[in-house]
Amino acid sequence: MDVDLIFKIAAVGILVAVLNILLTRSGREDQALMTSIAGLVVVLVIVVQEISDLFDLIRDLFGF
Amino acid sequence: MEIVSRAAACAVIGSILALLLRKHTPELSLTTTLITGMVIVWISSSVCIRIAESLRDVAHRSGVEAVYLAPVLKCIGIGMVSHMAAQICRDAGQGSAASAVELCAGLCALYTALPLIESLLAVVERLL
Questions:
Q1: Which residues from B are below 8 Å from A9, CB to CB?
Q2: Which range of residues forms the domain containing residue B92?
Q3: Which of A15, B17, B38, B55 lies at a 20 to 30 A Cα distance from B92?
Q4: Helix axis angle, A3-25 relative to B2-22, nearest 10°?
């Protein structure tokens, strides 16, 4: 959980955005949708792990 | 001081990247802002740990039982978590989800403060 995490998520986002444009330009809208859904799932998996780490920290800190 | 500058740098970079992604993939721009918020809270956690320790130490030394301090810390944690979640929902344009989270947080905070109120009433009754 460090600053490079932001860049990792943003890199995936930029990659998905570029792929999206390429696929829509070449007429394959459905594959563009598939790509953005896949990118979202990958990012969400990473984000959920980080959020659970953070909530464990908050639980220890504030004694939930 | 170094922590504040790191947090500020993260916030600015994260929001710029999120803005970059907003036009083509709005959902990933929201996860970028989410992760930016999480990283900043993680950066400030070292300060938080130090504050919580000294708070418990002061409470222990001044004779306040942990029973009274625990709800206070819990309410702080609830407020922090719910405020972040509500703001992220507002970033996504879901104002109703944000107000729902805040309503639930208010109820939970009240729930954790109930023992305090009851013990206060007990003390007042004993005085009268």
A1: 28, 31-32, 35
A2: 65-128
A3: A15
A4: 10
**Element holding A41 (H helix, E strand):** helix A29-62
Q: Is residue B127 in some structural domain?
A: yes
Are residues A47 and A9 in contact, defined by beta-carbon separation less than 8 angstroms? yes
Domain presence at residue B25: yes
Domain-embedded: residue B123: yes
Average pLDDT for chain B: 90
- Is B48 in Cβ contact with A61 (below 8 Å)? yes
Which pLDDT score is estimated for B39?
92
Q: Which two tokens stand for residue B9?
A: 């740098």
What is residue B128's DSSP assignment?
A: -
Q: Does the pTM exceed 0.95? A: no
Q: In B, which residues are within 8 Å of A7 by CB distance?
A: 17
Q: Count how many Cα atoms sit within 13 Å of the Cα of residue B79 in the half-sphere of its side chain.
A: 10
pLDDT band at A1 (very low <50, low <70, confident <90, very high): low
Torsion of CA B35, A44, A38, B36, to 10 degrees: 0
